[in-house]
Design goal:
The complex is a heterodimer of chains A (178) and B (663).
Chain A lengths: L1 H26 L18 E2 L9 E2 L8 E6 L4 H15 L5 E6 L3 H11 L5 E5 L3 H6 L6 E5 L5 E6 L4 H16 L1
Parallel strand pairs in A: 3-4, 4-5
Antiparallel strand pairs in A: 1-2, 3-6, 6-7
Chain B lengths: L1 H29 L2 H4 L2 H24 L6 H6 L6 H6 L5 H22 L5 H25 L23 H4 L1 H25 L4 H32 L10 H26 L3 H24 L12 H25 L14 H31 L9 H21 L10 H7 L1 H17 L5 H24 L7 H10 L2 H25 L2 E7 L4 E4 L2 E12 L3 E12 L2 E6 L2 E5 L4 E5 L1 E4 L3 E11 L3 E10 L1 H19 L16 H6 L4
Antiparallel strand pairs in B: 1-10, 2-3, 3-4, 4-5, 4-6, 6-7, 8-9, 9-10
Classes of the chains: A alpha/beta (178), B alpha+beta (663).
Chain lengths: 178, 663
């Protein structure tokens, strides 16, 4: 009888654990999640090119100036939302934007870029999540700001919104660019 | 003035709900009929008050009353009439008003139609229903007031998110909410049964129609959302495993399990505590669905109300509702007496397998949706999710489900004869093998999943037909007798047959659309021709086309097949002035077996325009399958034995029905 009673406690216990996690999750800003990588050097990686006439890149290429690294995939909904902002960044030539095409089929990614436009100065393809693991990517899009010493200074999980761009990203880039 | 009336109605509704949540409950505990009788008028008054509140908000939208903050933020005087109306629920506050309105509607329906319910059960059900209303009304009045005024009133509003300005999405939320909220009735019945300490076949007969109704709405709502994503988001997919889609899919999976386990309670008096748990979980997941979308815990294109302060209120609401009901379950469920025994190979056994697979699938989706959040919350490592995760975990669970679904309805209750059933399904085996061979021949060298999907669909469709033929004794008795059995067949059998057959159609659609799609992306100049599948598309021109509150770039394609003009397709790209954003409007040519899908991207008529062409085999079958599923649910709902509150009644034709295998 006691064992039977314990069995009926399982759903409640599972729920309480869940609630605690959700509560902790709410304490974070849903968009800006601190990363263990902040102020650390970019993890080592080397990715082959996606587009025939554009180079791929690795951590060694992220040096000497400020970069934005944006991780995207053609199957990702929020990537479409932030895409016009990346196009704007590229057009205004504020900072080079490098793209990592994550867990995607190259054909799909090319079609995606053809449809929406290509804001990236270089694109590395990462279909098997090689660089993604080192960056700690668990979903796309993610955006990183890399300083001239090749250190990660900012991480955005989820799409960039205009207010984040204006209030956080652009001021930080200006500051890093001196 | 009218906005203040709306606000006052909300406050009165809260007071009414408080009375309805307490007085009948105490009355039921003490056995005081007068106190229990409060529930009925209270539920009706609450509906009236919510109608007033909803009408007041609608009035503010229709008259573009920009002294109401909610209207300023979500509407615009240029907006077409239909979107002024849908704007009422196209935002956080308004959608809550709609949510509670539907909740009150369902409560009033129980109050009015539940005349055959035992008084104490009815009082308790309506009390629990009112408790939910109390939570949501308090949330609305204290943190999400739709009637807040703004002074001075701005000259015009900000408009609705253009993605949401679409007929498909205008009616998506009400239908989806009717599904979510409909499960509140099953929940209230479950809580009332736990308080009463009694679950029997009659209880299941009262719960089933409400669950069926909610399930049908939810199915339709998910289908409509998927259809919207397909033609409006403009990149040709119909399901993205987006957190908001998952939020509606989880209650659907558990709700489907509930639908089937309630059947076992009704017929065999077994699986009671499990069914109660499913009822609690289904509604809990409906609440989590609201929570995920509304709190901004997960960022997504759909999550148009991102506000953590509200999230904390909803989380407290969730803890009270779900935690409270599960605590009650832990205390009271062991008291419920178990019912009929059965062997693992039996109809009950197959329904348990169905339940296990569906709840596991729901758990998978839950994990994939929330896992990133858990890990982040404890500051630990991270995992990668997305369609790759869901496709590798979810699909393998559906394969045994479909295989078992073919045989399950033929098994007898209590103790089934699996070998005998499989023998009766030899025609289905033969059909499946034939389809497998043909599909392999046609698609040789392509993905093996295509063959698998088609074979599963063939297996399911033919075994549904075999099961149906067996029920009317086709081939075993005289044809005239078969016809008579056909006309006497209960509606719930028709419903089950439709629903399972619709599922087979859906599998064909999903397989075709996921595996055999072909696409072509190119830059076209006017006059150029592109080919996809057997179609040749000529770009005739690109021109600007003004709309009511947007300007569109519209391309015109002439589609030819074997030199004959098939159709003209005109995809658009719209720019909305107020929000400074763009949407794509796909142009789709549907035939029975495939869609030709065209969207345009960057560029103009002078320098060429980016064109994306898709050929998507079987995608119309997805929508058809969903329609048949919903039709199945509604047909089953019309069964007189499931009429709301209808008592168990011996049918005059009972022997005949029994002979036809009516159950």
């Amino acid at each position: 009888m006691l064992a039977r009673r314990v069995l009926f406690l399982v759903p409640l216990s599972a729920f309480l654990v869940l609630a605690v996690y959700l509560w902790a999750g709410l304490q974070n800003d849903p968009r800006i999640i601190p990363s263990a990588l902040i102020d650390q050097p970019v993890p080592e990686f080397e990715l082959p090119p996606l587009v025939p006439d554009k180079l791929g890149f690795g951590n060694k290429d992220l040096n000497g100036q400020v970069f934005i690294v944006n991780i995207f995939a053609s199957w990702c909904l929020p990537c479409r939302v932030e895409h016009p902002l990346l196009m704007k960044l590229a057009e205004e030539n504020i900072v080079p934007v490098y793209g990592i095409n994550w867990k995607d089929r190259p054909a799909d990614a090319l079609a995606w870029l053809a449809e929406l436009g290509d804001p990236y100065a270089r694109i590395g393809q990462d279909p098997d999540n090689n660089a993604g693991v080192d960056f700690g990517v668990y979903g796309v899009p993610e955006t990183y700001i890399i300083d001239a010493e090749g250190r990660i200074r900012f991480k955005q999980v989820g799409p960039i919104f205009p207010e984040i761009l204006e209030e956080t990203i652009l001021p930080l880039i200006r500051e890093l660019q001196g | 003035m009218i906005a203040e009336i709306g606000q006052f109605a909300l406050a009165l509704a809260l007071v009414t709900a408080l009375a309805q949540a307490t007085i009948p409950l105490i009355g039921a505990a003490r056995g005081t009929p007068a106190w229990m009788a409060v529930a009925r008028p209270a539920a009706i008054v609450q509906l009236g008050l919510m109608v007033i509140a909803f009408a007041a908000l609608t009035h503010a939208y229709l008259t573009s009353d920009f002294s109401v903050l909610n209207v300023v933020q979500n509407s615009n005087s240029l907006k077409p009439l239909i979107y002024k109306i849908s704007g009422v629920w196209g935002n956080h506050e308004g959608s809550l008003v709609l949510w509670v309105l539907i909740l009150a509607l369902f409560g009033a329906m129980v109050a009015v139609f539940g005349t055959n319910l035992p008084p104490s059960l009815k009082a308790r059900v309506l009390s629990v229903q009112a408790m939910i209303a109390v939570g949501f009304l308090a949330f609305m009045l204290f943190s999400s007031n739709p009637f807040l005024r703004v002074f001075p009133a701005p000259p015009d509003g900000n408009g609705l998110n253009p993605l949401l300005q679409d007929p498909g999405l205008a009616f998506h939320p009400p239908i989806l909410y009717a599904g979510y909220v409909g499960f509140s009735i099953a929940f209230s019945f479950a809580i009332a049964a736990l308080i009463e300490g009694k679950v029997d076949a009659a209880w299941a007969r009262w719960v089933r129609p409400w669950t069926l109704l909610a399930w049908s709405f939810l199915t339709a709502g998910i289908g409509l959302g998927s259809w919207w994503a397909y033609y409006e988001l403009g990149w040709g997919g119909w399901w993205y495993w987006d957190p908001v889609e998952n939020a509606s899919f989880m209650p659907w999976l558990v709700g489907t399990a509930l639908l089937h386990s309630a059947l076992v309670v009704e017929r065999r008096d077994a699986l009671k505590t499990w069914t109660i748990l499913l009822a609690i979980l289904t509604f809990s997941l409906s609440l989590v669905g609201t929570f995920l979308v509304r709190s901004g815990v997960l960022t997504s294109v759909h999550a148009f109300a991102t506000d953590p302060a509200r999230g904390i209120f909803i989380l407290m609401l969730l803890v009270v509702v779900i935690g409270g009901s599960l605590a009650l379950y832990a205390v009271r469920a062991p008291v419920l007496k178990g019912g009929g025994l059965f062997s693992p190979i039996s109809r009950e056994g197959s329904l348990i397998l169905n339940n296990l697979l569906l709840t596991t699938a729901a758990a998978t989706v839950f994990l994939g949706t929330l896992y990133p959040l858990f890990l982040e919350a404890i500051g630990g490592g991270k995992v990668s999710v997305g369609p790759p995760f869901f496709n590798t975990t979810f699909v393998p669970l559906m394969i045994p489900l479909v295989i078992a679904l073919g045989a399950g309805p033929l098994l007898a209750w209590k103790r089934g004869d699996l070998a005998g059933v499989l023998g009766r399904l030899k025609f289905a085996f033969a059909a499946t093998m034939t389809v497998a061979v043909i599909a392999s021949y046609i698609t040789w060298g392509q993905s093996v999943f295509g063959v698998m999907g088609m074979s599963l669909a063939a297996w399911l469709a033919t075994s549904v037909l075999v099961t149906f033929a067996e029920r009317i004794g086709l081939g075993r008795v005289a044809f005239a007798d078969s016809l008579r059995r056909l006309s006497n067949l209960p509606r719930n059998i028709w419903g089950m047959t439709f629903a399972h057959f619709g599922f087979a159609i859906l599998i064909v659609g999903i397989t075709g659309a996921s595996i055999w799609q072909s696409e072509n992306v190119l830059i076209m100049q006017p006059g150029e021709t592109a080919q996809i599948s057997s179609y040749k598309l000529t770009l005739d021109g690109v021109r600007d086309q003004p709309g009511p509150n947007y300007t569109a770039q519209r391309a015109t394609f002439t589609v030819r097949q074997d030199g004959e003009v098939t159709t003209i397709l005109e995809p658009e790209r719209r720019s909305y002035m107020v929000q400074n954003s763009q949407t794509t409007e796909a142009a789709i040519y549907s035939t029975a077996f495939a869609d030709l899908y065209v969207v345009i991207g960057d560029g103009d008529g002078a320098n060429g325009i980016t064109v994306r062409l898709f050929h998507k085999p079987f995608i119309p079958w997805i929508w058809l399958g969903i329609l048949i599923l919903v039709a199945g649910g509604l047909t089953s709902l019309s069964d007189r034995r499931l009429r709301v509150g209808a008592p168990a009644r011996k049918e005059k034709s009972a022997p005949l029905l029994a002979a036809a295998g009516a159950d």
